[in-house]
Every structure is written in C-alpha cells, then in structure tokens.
Amino acid sequence: MTTTPLQRWRLLLGEAAEQACGGLGGSAGADGGGDASDGDLAAMDRALAWLYGRDEEQRGRHQHERAAGLGASTLTVPEWVNAVHTLFPKETIERLERDAVERYRIDEIVTNRDVLERLRPNPALLKAVLRSKHLMNPDVLALARALVAEVVRQLIEALATQLTQAFAGVRNRRRRTRVANSRNFDAAATLRANLKHYDPSTKKLFLRNPLFNTRSTRAIERWQLVLLVDQSGSMLGSVIHTAVTAACLYGLPGIRTHLVAFDTNVVDLTGEIDDPVETLMRVQLGGGTDIARAMQYAAELIETPRRAIVVLVSDLYEGGSPSHLLALTQSLVAQGTRVLALAALDEAAEPAFDRALGAQMVERGAEVGAMTPGELAAWLAQKLRR
C-alpha cells in the first residue's frame, strides 16, 4: 500500500506528531496516488506503537501514551506478527522482527509456535532462539531447531567459499593442470604459447591452448587447533560463528580441531563439532567467566606444542584469576604454541573487551584483536603453512 511522505513521518514519529503532520487520514493524493485506507494506517500505527512505545516506557512514560487510544497495548504477539506481515513490505518486516528480538528481547516472538512458523530464518532470530530455547515446549523446540539449521546452513555456505580460498594454496607455475579455473589462468605463458596463432591481417591472437597452473601447499604436518569460546550472553554472536567455523575447519586435512565452550565450567563440544546445530542447541548462555580454567583445559589437550594453536574467543572480562590466565598464556607461548585472543568473531568484528587484560596478554606473546570468520580462516592458513 502507498502512503504519502507526511503519513510516513506521522507513522515514524507517533501520536506526538499528529498536529504537525496532519494525522493519518486522507488519500495519498498527487504525491503517490496511494491506496492506504484510514483503517490500514491506524493498524500500522498501532503495530509500531506496540513495539517502539517501549522506548517511551523506559523513559518513564506509560506505553499507551504514544498510541493515543488506538489500543496498542491490547495486541498479543501473534496479533502483532500477523499485522506486521499484512501491512508492511518485506524490508520493513525484517527490521521490525529484528528490533523485536534484539532490541526489546520479546522472547515470545520465538517461543510461540504460531508466530515462529511465520518468521523467516535469519541471524537475529537464531540469536533469539538460543536465548529462549529453555522456555520452549518440545513441539516449539523442534520447529526452532529447523530454523537454527537453516540459518546455520546459510552461514556455512558463505564461509565455505572463504575457507576454500584461504586454504587453496599458492600457484605452482612449474606444474600445469587441465582444470580450467580463472584463478589459475597463466596469462603470460598462454600468450607465449599461442603467438604462432597470431593473424597479422586481422591483428588478432587466437588462443588455441590456454594454460592453467596447479595450486599446491607445503606439506602440512598434523596441527591441533583448540577453539575456546566464552558462552556469556554478550558473546552470543561470536558463539554462533565459532561453532560454524569449527564445523568448517573440522573437515580440513592435517588439522585436529577441538571446540570448547566455557563459563565458570568447561564443556568440551568436540564430539558434536561436525553438527553445529547440535552444538548451538547445547550452549548454555550466561553465568560467570573463568577464562583461566578454560586455558588450563586447552593446555592439557595439547600434544605437540609447536604444532598447536589456541584461539580464545572472549571479551576477556575475567571472573577467575587474571594472574593465572597471564601465566598460562606466557607458558603456552614459551613452548611454541600460538595464542590468539579474539574479542569478537562475527560478521561485524567490532571488539568490546577488557583492553587492559588484552594488553597484558600481548606482552606475554599472544595476539589480540577481532576478526570475521573469513579473516580467521586466512590467519590460520598463514600460520599452518609456516
């Protein structure tokens, strides 16, 4: 349905803009030739007030003030989702659902079966499911698991391409292959080999025999990769991407990958590492944080120190012993193990962490930063080829 610019501003600003924007009534007129009825506009305003009126409540005003008698507070979650899917375009629906689950933590968005069946799988909903799975009955949990599986499939599909590129090896210009691939095309050698097919009359060079190089990597001795992931609530995005990354790395030759989740306890998830859906459904968000305990567990797993990498995914707000964590970091580095601490492992890679403790870990030989899963794959490929 079409709305005028003034109507859109009125919907955006709420009842407080009624006088300035002239209300929601009337046709779209010359601006858009729209067809939004007064009832549709009122329903849109009611749906927006139901969600964003919560900001006013947080500022000390009652939620129904913005709704101005339109009954926003009477909507149930299923009614709201139905209204949103009926009244708004796809892009707006996705934004409203994302705000509902991420900004306002409306758990019933994913704990109500009728609602869950209407939602499109996306990372925001995956986070909501993982936060709320303990509230779901078995039927809803089965449906939620299918949503998790679809989002995970999408994430794996995107990361697999990046992993292939990172671990593809370097071009070997001394060896040819019959596998035609644009990344392996040897332009210079192809030109030299086809000069005899140059036609002076047309000034064209015909490529009868294109040449392609193979790609090879140095022989990789068996490596151990230990992924430690902090399962505190603030690390949820990183937990998701760590599980997906671990599943993708698990199938690579020459790498023995471990996946360990921790809070004040340590849970070894390596047995489910090839099933990231099961891994994520086992994660228990929240609780305290004992990073040193997790690092101690990682140290005990290591068989050949100089062929081991420990990747710690945590905001580094240590609830245990910082001095013990620093001592373990120094000991691991001294024996030749590479230690990488990631404050974020997700698509945004925006770090929020204890910078003082991070700096102390750097002083003891660790690397500290934030990466996307693709960047981590490239970093690992570089270290494994040394």
Automatic annotation (TrEMBL):
Domain spans labelled VWFA: 222-381
Origin: domain of life: Bacteria
InterPro entries named in the record: LolB (IPR050458), Uncharacterised_CoxE (IPR008912), VWF_A (IPR002035), vWFA_dom_sf (IPR036465)
Protein name: VWA domain-containing protein
Organism encoding this protein: Tahibacter soli
Lineage start: Bacteria, Pseudomonadati, Pseudomonadota, Gammaproteobacteria, Lysobacterales
